[in-house]
Structure formats: structure tokens, C-alpha cells
Design goal:
alpha+beta, three-stranded antiparallel sheet, Tetrahydropterin Synthase, Chain A
């Protein structure tokens, strides 16, 4: 009789131990009694009735679900690959509904995001998609968030990770960018030459109005050349001598006529 009592006690202890649940701070346990929802267990040491009651663990922390790369066609008929990441969290007050209403939530979110991405990419031209990735992400988030409301999920953000395009198109875009840079360089160079010519014109006008300033500039040029250690010898004549020679030549030509 004593042995039977001991067996019963051991069985009851094992039965109770099988019903012990430790609920972590970031978890919630949805309890089903004989298959029917009966409550949610909050963080702490909890006890359920084994066999009769079962639990489903729900993590209420923020999750990141990777959306596999998808082939999509842009508005200007360019094929590209696009992949993204969805950040979402199950609403704490509705964890029971998230368990009851949808099976494999991560898979459902990923599949719906794939379809949404293809539709959104079709609304953008390739250049616009590459330049406004954030805008495309916001559109995907809005649609996924509206759909996931029925699953009691709060979509925090959708981030497009990468956009891949064919290699030949990459080379074409590279050539276009190089041509654009060369264009800007030539425009800047021509602007510099125009400003330089205008400054030279102003300097020549000022020197023409002040002949002695031209002499001073000539002497300064001679001084700069003399500091060079080369063997080249340069003879410089005042511009008045050149004017006198030119006047004499004009006078001789006039007499000949």
C-alpha cells in the first residue's frame, strides 16, 4: 500500500512539473484548453494542466523578415532584381488573434511583400527607382501595413536592400555617367576661360590708360625671368620702340605710293 502511495505521489509531481511554464519578458503564451482559446499567460512562472491544456509561444519583439530577391519589370520595361527586409512586431494586446487568424506569420508576410514589391517596381522608371529607393520602400510599407492589420501586426518599416540590373545596362549607365561628368568638366573649363579672358581684357584696358604701368609690368617680367637659372637670353624692347618702327614703316610705304 505504501509503495502504491509513493507511485501516486511521484506521478502527481511529474504531472505538475510537466505543466510548469516559465514565460520570458518578451514572450506571451496563448493557452488552449481542449483546443479552445482560454487566455494568455504573462511573464512569470505559470502552471497549466498537461494534456488538457496546450500553449503557443508568441515573441512580441521586433522581427526582421528577409524578402527574397524578386525579378520585376520597371515602368520603362527594364528587368531588375530587388530584395528587401520587413521589420514588424505583433501587437501585444492581440497576440491571441495573431495566432488564431494566420498560420506561419513570417511566411505570409514574406509572400505578400514579394507580390507588393513587383507591383510597386512597375510604377517606377529605373532611374527614378534607383534615385528614390526610400519612396518605393514607403509605398511597399503602406500596402503591407494595410494588409497586415487583419493579422494584428504592426509593420515598422520596409527597407529595400539591393537593386540589381543586367551587366550590359550597368556599362551603359556607367558610360552615361562618364559623359555627364565630362560635360560638366568642359562647362566649368569654358567658364574659367571666359572669366580669364574678361580679366585679361580689363587688365589690358587699364594698362593702355597708364603707359608707365606697362613699363613697370615689363620691368617686373624682366626681374622674374632673370631669377631663372637657364642659359636662355631674352632681349626685351619697350613697346614705344615698336610703335616708332611701325610709324616709320607706314611713312615709308606712304612715300612709295
Amino acid at each position: 500500500m505504501m509503495e502504491l502511495f509513493m507511485y501516486v505521489v511521484v506521478f502527481l509531481l511529474l504531472f505538475l512539473m510537466a505543466g510548469i511554464r516559465v514565460v520570458k519578458q518578451y514572450d506571451r503564451l496563448v493557452v488552449f484548453t481542449l483546443g479552445k482559446y482560454t487566455g494568455i499567460l504573462q511573464p512569470w512562472l505559470k502552471l497549466i494542466i498537461p494534456i488538457i491544456q496546450t500553449t503557443t509561444k508568441i515573441d512580441i519583439r521586433e522581427k526582421a523578415v528577409d524578402v527574397p530577391s524578386q525579378e520585376a519589370m520597371t515602368k520603362d520595361n527594364v528587368s531588375c532584381g530587388i530584395n528587401a527586409v520587413i521589420y514588424y512586431r505583433i501587437k501585444e494586446e492581440y497576440v491571441d488573434k495573431a495566432v488564431i487568424n494566420v498560420r506561419n506569420l513570417d511566411y505570409a508576410m514574406s509572400q505578400f511583400a514579394q507580390t507588393t514589391m513587383r507591383n510597386i517596381v512597375g510604377q517606377f522608371e529605373l532611374d527614378e527607382l534607383l534615385a528614390n529607393r526610400e519612396k518605393a520602400s514607403q509605398k511597399i510599407k503602406k500596402i503591407v501595413d494595410e494588409k497586415s492589420d487583419a493579422w494584428w501586426v504592426d509593420v515598422l518599416s520596409v527597407e529595400i536592400k539591393d537593386i540589381t540590373i543586367p551587366q550590359d545596362l550597368k556599362r551603359t549607365i556607367g558610360k552615361q555617367a562618364e559623359a555627364e561628368r565630362e560635360k560638366r568638366a568642359k562647362i566649368i573649363s569654358s567658364q574659367w576661360e571666359l572669366e580669364s579672358a574678361e580679366n585679361l581684357q580689363q587688365a589690358a584696358t587699364m594698362l593702355a590708360k597708364a603707359p608707365w604701368a606697362l613699363h613697370l609690368r615689363t620691368l617686373q617680367s624682366i626681374n622674374d625671368i632673370s631669377s631663372d637659372q637657364s642659359n636662355t637670353t631674352i632681349w626685351m624692347l619697350p613697346i614705344e620702340i615698336m610703335d616708332a618702327i611701325k610709324g616709320l614703316w607706314d611713312f615709308v610705304q606712304k612715300d612709295k605710293k
